[in-house]
Amino acid sequence: MSATAAPTSPHVMNTYGRLPIALVRGQGCRVWDVNGKAYLDGLGGIAVNTLGHNHPELVPALQEQLTQLIHTSNYYYVPGQEVLAERLTALSGMTNAFFCCTGLEANEAAIKLARKFGHDKGIERPEIVVYEHAFHGRSLATLSATGNPKIQKGFGPLVEGFIRVPLNDIEALKKATEGNPNVVAVMFETIQGEGGIHPMRWDYLQQVRALCDTNDWLMMIDEIQTGIGRTGKWFAHQWAGIVPDVMSLAKGLGSGVPVGAVVAGPKAANIFQPGNHGTTFGGNPLAMRAGIETLRIMEKDGLLQNAADVGAHLKAALQAAFEGVAGVKEVRGQGLMLGIELDRPAGAVLTRACDAGLLLSVTADSVIRLVPPLVLTVAEADEIVALLAPIVKAFLAEPAQ
Ligand SMILES: *Cc1c(COP(=O)(O)O)cnc(C)c1O
């Protein structure tokens, strides 16, 4: 392979449309490819690299942990689990956590919790309310909860027991569940990520909370992308001043080390008993150390405030850059979870930004998504706009394909 040849992976399954670069090194919000070309990281490993790359406190802590103990199994107590569970419950106002490795695994656990919550009440065929355009993962149950027929195609029969409703419409939710004694839970993202950066209204969230209380349903929030400080609060639902019964976490929790969690309040904390659920890797000492250090460093360095401040700056700068630009429908989102919706498929922006040295992603075909590390500086935010704005404007000025 010559120095500039496009990388290939002929022995890796063809599950992603990959960009033709291979990244080998990172520092802060910057990454480098095999050829030494630098990129500004507006994607953060899809909202994963909370602390950026090669963080000067995270890396030594993980190195120390590697030499002590990596994995033991859940047949024994893992002291780090209690430390991280104590932190997550204190930050969320909930009571207990279960640790796993990924987002879909956290949501699977949440779905099983809801079903057993129903069975414990004598409901034999429990049903869970989910949303149009939702994304909850790629396992069969979480894919079935996902509101995107395109990625469900080819994998039927899907798992039953889900009722789908539109976002931000309380009457539709009431109508879809009216007189149905089998409903056990409502499950949603506070800001839909893969669905195109669609926020739930805070007053709607409060109405759902009230409906869950009245009907004894579990309110289950998928904070996998929105949680861990991304929107400027520890968890995005905290903007609405409510506390869910179940919350799933993953992505940013381990700053790149796979860590997932389901956090539960009193209504759901004791549903699982020994034998009901498990995982081999979940909650191992290395993963717990990554989670503990991520939260500690975030708190010490004021990264919630940074996400709120730099996010607000970035959003305002993007809005100013695209003011009056035909083809840009909206700049939306909160903190460092932002979307720029175009009036056409935006795939070309992704490749051109990559060529120009900026990493980002496109969701729901036409929404340019920015979910950079939470250590992003104002100068780096300005650099994102300076790189992105001319690319988007030039693209929109071309005749539509
Ligand atoms: C990414 C994501 C998931 C799935 O997480 P994986 O770790 O890829 O399984 C689930 N829900 C939301 C909201 C996500 O953004």
TrEMBL record:
PANTHER family the UniProt entry points to: ACETYLORNITHINE AMINOTRANSFERASE, MITOCHONDRIAL, AMINOTRANSFERASE CLASS III
Modification N6-(pyridoxal phosphate)lysine, positions: K251
Domain of life of the native organism: Bacteria
Pathway: Amino-acid biosynthesis; L-arginine biosynthesis; N(2)-acetyl-L-ornithine from L-glutamate: step 4/4; Amine and polyamine biosynthesis; ectoine biosynthesis; L-ectoine from L-aspartate 4-semialdehyde: step 1/3
CDD domains the UniProt entry points to: OAT_like
Protein name: Acetylornithine aminotransferase
Its EC number(s): 2.6.1.11
Localization (cell): Cytoplasm
Keyword Transferase: yes
InterPro entries documented for this protein: AcOrn/SuccOrn_fam, Aminotrans_3, Aminotrans_3_PPA_site, Class-III_PLP-dep_AT, PyrdxlP-dep_Trfase, PyrdxlP-dep_Trfase_major, PyrdxlP-dep_Trfase_small
Family named by the database record: Belongs to the class-III pyridoxal-phosphate-dependent aminotransferase family. ArgD subfamily.
Quaternary structure, from the entry: Homodimer.
GO MF annotations, alphabetized: diaminobutyrate-2-oxoglutarate transaminase activity; identical protein binding; N2-acetyl-L-ornithine:2-oxoglutarate 5-aminotransferase activity; pyridoxal phosphate binding
Binding, N(2)-acetyl-L-ornithine: R138, T279
Required co-factors: pyridoxal 5'-phosphate
Organism: Pseudacidovorax intermedius
Amino acids binding pyridoxal 5'-phosphate: F135, D222, E223, I224, Q225, T280
Cofactor binding note from Swiss-Prot or TrEMBL: Binds 1 pyridoxal phosphate per subunit.
Catalytic function, reaction form: N(2)-acetyl-L-ornithine + 2-oxoglutarate = N-acetyl-L-glutamate 5-semialdehyde + L-glutamate
